[in-house]
UniProtKB/TrEMBL annotation:
Gene3D superfamilies: IHF-like DNA-binding proteins. SUPFAM superfamilies: IHF-like DNA-binding proteins. InterPro entries: Hist_DNA-bd, IHF-like_DNA-bd_dom_sf. One of its GO terms (molecular function) is DNA binding. Belongs to the bacterial histone-like protein family. GO terms for cellular component: cytosol. Keywords: DNA condensation, DNA-binding. This is Integration host factor subunit beta. One of its GO terms (biological process) is chromosome condensation.
């Protein structure tokens, strides 16, 4: 699903202009990105939580050259789904 699809669904359900909904979605996503950049956790009840985790530095081999490389510390995004979302996904498959 693309951001455009979300804007279309929300604008249809709320009978709002797509341009207004698009601005609102952009504000939400920018706010979330800003919070994650500030190392703050985002929790959306019934959906899940987003947080930033730090990966440890490591040494690995470049598969193309066979040369050893040092990979520095890096931040990654971590998502944990809520219990209700997990149960909904499991019940759909079952």
């Amino acid at each position: 699903m693309l951001k455009k699809d979300i804007v279309n669904i929300v604008s249809d359900q709320l009978s709002m202009q797509k341009q207004d909904v698009s601005v609102a979605v952009d504000i939400i996503l920018d706010t979330m990105a800003g919070a994650l950049q500030d190392d703050r956790r985002i929790e959306l009840r019934g959906y899940g939580s987003f947080s930033v985790r730090q990966r440890k530095p490591r040494c690995t081999k470049n598969p193309r050259t066979g040369k050893m490389m040092d990979i520095p510390v890096r931040n990654t995004l971590h998502f944990t789904m809520s219990k209700s979302l997990k149960e909904a996904l499991i019940s759909e498959k079952g």
